[in-house]
From TrEMBL:
This protein's name: Arginine N-methyltransferase 2
Enzyme Commission designation: 2.1.1.-
Species name: Pseudomassariella vexata
Domain RMT2: 187-426
GO molecular function, one term: protein arginine N5-methyltransferase activity
UniProt enzyme class: transferase
GO biological process, one term: methylation
Length: 426
């Protein structure tokens, strides 16, 4: 069988000479020959037109699978490529980013360099978005959704980050003809929050899906919800005050309810979820509200959290545990929640958690976003502890099969869930 990681497979004879030269120097870790070629903007991110090999892929792929430290020469080349504007999340024809190749070949140091580059790029991207907002003030998209949209949103355009990073060192060219490769496209899942809130939902055995068959909530996540409740309410003490944002299938709310809280508030925006809550099979309808230990202690607030939370703040509501798990919203919304509102809602020694599906369809994206969100939480005055738990992947292995049958996109691919437990800095 042909070695799919061989230089001949990855850089075929048909490769244009100008691209092949860069890729081969990167592959052979020949820094003296490579470096002068990178002085033109865009050359660090050339792509072989048929395999999608970039210099980063080449430099990393040339290292054999090994538990030993990555070769110094490879690290030097990878560093030089990043300094020259190489793109951390370009995918090749195997749908692998350079970091995915590093992970597969057990090149831990090179993998960490890719993660660090991803974090730098995302932070820079955020600054650029900020500058854009000052001039145009209309679009405010951020990199990835917690649930809903795919990680492919995270890929940067060819001309985004590198221009600013390397402006002094490089000669600027108008167009980059060296990136003719078309990456394999995953099943598209671009979800707009307003469209979602207008769409028809279906509750069926083990899942809640929207009109497009996007999985809004699935029963396989029960173990994650269980672990989140256990982490947010240590010892599961009764009499706590709880706020949950996003009812979905009510899995986490049932667990919160079982702890016999003194206050249990739920915010839910979708009219059909609200109808389900008030329907015959659900235990969170009017009877539940009427069973409150004190006036208004058990309550479902209908509406978007963005509209409800300011009213809770105004009313002086405080909570010991807050969980955030919405659907189809940008990460920017989660960030806005913990940056702008959490301080006013959470008790000093309270705990905050959220469903951590950021970049969960690719390990390196998950690792990058873990670091980015940690920085943002820190900016908001929060420390975060990540509790890692095993996810039982049985039935979750393949798109459209097992648990994913009848669901448009497999939004979870990882065997470990990193659960955030955030507290105010001490
Ligand atoms: C993933 S589900 C929550 C699942 C829940 N953790 C459980 O255990 O079943 C997300 C929920 O958030 C709701 N939602 C989406 N956007 C919202 C918003 N802006 N405000 C409040 N709820 C929202 C959705 O309608 C959906 O019911």
């Amino acid at each position: 069988m042909a070695d799919t990681d061989s230089i001949d497979t990855r850089i075929p004879d048909s490769c244009p000479a100008s691209i092949s030269e860069i890729l081969k120097h990167a592959w052979h870790h020949n820094l003296p020959s490579l470096k002068p070629l990178l002085n033109v903007l865009g050359r660090a991110s050339v792509q072989e037109p048929t395999t999608g090999e970039t210099p980063l892929h080449a430099a990393i792929r040339a290292c054999k699978a090994s538990d030993e430290k990555s070769p110094v020469t490879a690290k030097d080349v990878v560093e030089e490529l990043f300094m020259s504007g190489a793109i951390w999340n370009d995918v090749d024809n195997n749908n692998e980013t350079p970091g995915c190749v590093a992970a597969r070949l057990k090149q831990k140091d090179l993998y960490e360099m890719c993660v660090a580059a991803g974090v730098r790029a995302e932070l820079l991207f955020e600054i650029l978005e900020g500058y854009e907002a000052l001039s145009s003030a209309d679009e405010d998209e951020e990199f990835v959704d917690i649930r809903g949209n795919g990680d492919e949103n995270a890929e940067q355009d060819d001309d985004e980050v590198p221009e600013l990073v390397n402006i002094q060192e490089t000669e600027i060219v108008d167009e980059n003809p060296d990136r003719a490769f078309t990456a394999p496209k995953p099943v598209a899942a671009t979800i707009d929050s307003e469209d979602y809130l207008r769409s028809n939902l279906t509750y069926s055995d083990g899942k809640l899906v929207d009109a497009e068959k996007n999985g809004v909530m699935m029963a396989w996540e029960t173990s994650i919800m269980r672990a989140s409740v256990d982490a947010l309410l240590p010892c599961l003490t009764s009499g706590r005050r709880i706020l949950n944002i996003g009812f979905g299938m009510g899995i986490i709310d049932q667990m919160f309810r079982d702890t016999e809280p003194a206050k249990h508030h739920i915010i839910e925006a979708h009219p059909e979820v609200l109808a389900y809550i008030n329907g015959p099979g659900c235990k969170f309808g009017k009877d539940w509200e009427a069973s409150s230990p004190s006036e208004g202690a058990y309550k479902v607030y209908g509406g978007k959290w963005q509209d409800v939370v300011p009213k809770l703040l105004e009313a002086g509501e405080m909570y010991d545990a807050i969980y955030f798990d919405t659907f189809g919203e940008d990460y920017s919304q989660l960030r806005m929640f913990f940056t702008d509102y959490l301080l006013g809602l959470l008790e000093e020694d309270g705990r905050f958690g959220f469903f951590n599906g950021l970049g969960a369809d690719r390990q390196i994206c998950y690792d990058v976003y873990t670091k980015v969100v940690e920085m943002h939480l820190s900016d908001a005055g929060m420390d975060v502890e990540w509790l890692e738990m095993q996810v039982d992947m049985q039935g979750l292995e393949a798109e459209g099969k097992g648990e994913w049958q009848g669901v448009k996109r497999r939004y979870w691919t990882l065997d470990k869930y990193r659960m955030p437990v955030a507290t105010f800095m001490g």
